[in-house]
């Protein structure tokens, strides 16, 4: 019993921390690496489109597209896909999810699609995205790019082709990717826990 | 907020402005879905919806059915003609028999005022009122406001004239509630026999001169003369109605201003609206029909998600 009690207190200690897992400088290197990995596979991007998953994959997708433009001089088509209407937890959640805008101004028929999201957790969002994407045509191939891969948390057999960093985490914890904007000075990735555990 | 405050859509009177804004925002997303190569989402694939129509309908019923199919729901249709209602079955028995077949939602049109309200007190399924007598037609009002919002940017502060048979119109009443909740100014216009006596108490202006109404408003929502609901002589003849209250393109052009023309359909061409007005650049009548599917998808989706 004593050992169990110790585990619980250790767990609480971890949960109470808002831990910085990827600081600004490292995140910039990570984004550069992901761009170069994409260039390695896709060459001149003549047949490739980028799709950011709403709501949070949008920011990463925009950043990658900008950096790829700087490196290759190519303006790669970028769209945003909302998966709310395709989710498998409709009517099973405590409160329904609000939908976000989908804006894909191109047909993905015979294109190589890179789906982009910030965090890969259970894999259910990605499954919904694969389903949602088909409404825009039959792609030649689909790849998945993820900034943070939360290990051992998958509900479905889904893995990413490009990974920023793998992270060990508890199911109750949350990964927060913060992007530089008017309120935030730096790009940072945090591992945080829900307040009710503290 | 991502949830409606109600479990049923019985009337606009029962919902809040926030509910309407949520429906509009969700409908925006569904409108985008309807412009995709594949116009269908799987959201309601485990839901069965019964369209129960005790009164005739073309547009509303098709629009609901399409909305349900675009959401991947299973759909059954029921119309009173040719059913056991003719054999004397009560409304509650009919609906309970339908529900026994594991139906999750009921879309109902009925000629009696309050029929969906009565039903909502006795059954568990979500109910959408598709028109109850001369009372309310909430989805029509929602799609009208959605169309005004789409055309003019917002509804708040706009002047809307509802012109025609206000007395027999459920569209008019639902529109008055919706537009007022969204912050618009509302006027009703028609012959005094077709305007309910105490309608001014709802806070609407009353006008009997169609030209003055058109000069005042940003949007004219012209209603159908409901020939099937006329009991007694409320106006001498259709010809006389057209002469005093009919709208044609010449009249619209002579106003020298931007005006949006709406009609919930079906149009009596040459009675309340001339053909050249209905087909003019002022008219957003077909946009209303297109928006109807997106708005009904939003209503069904949001009600289904608030089932428990």
Automatic annotation (TrEMBL), chain B:
GO terms for molecular function: aspartate carbamoyltransferase activity. Residues 157-303 form the Aspartate/ornithine carbamoyltransferase Asp/Orn-binding domain. The keyword Transferase applies. It is an enzyme of class 2 (transferase). InterPro entries: Asp/Orn_carbamoyltranf_P-bd, Asp/Orn_carbamoylTrfase, Asp/Orn_carbamoylTrfase_sf, Asp_carbamoyltransf, Asp_carbamoyltransf_Asp/Orn-bd. Keywords: Pyrimidine biosynthesis, Transferase. It catalyses: carbamoyl phosphate + L-aspartate = N-carbamoyl-L-aspartate + phosphate + H(+). L-aspartate binds at residues 87, 170, 224. Pathway: Pyrimidine metabolism; UMP biosynthesis via de novo pathway; (S)-dihydroorotate from bicarbonate: step 2/3. Its EC number is 2.1.3.2. Belongs to the aspartate/ornithine carbamoyltransferase superfamily. ATCase family. This is Aspartate carbamoyltransferase. It comes from Adhaeribacter terrigena. The gene is pyrB.
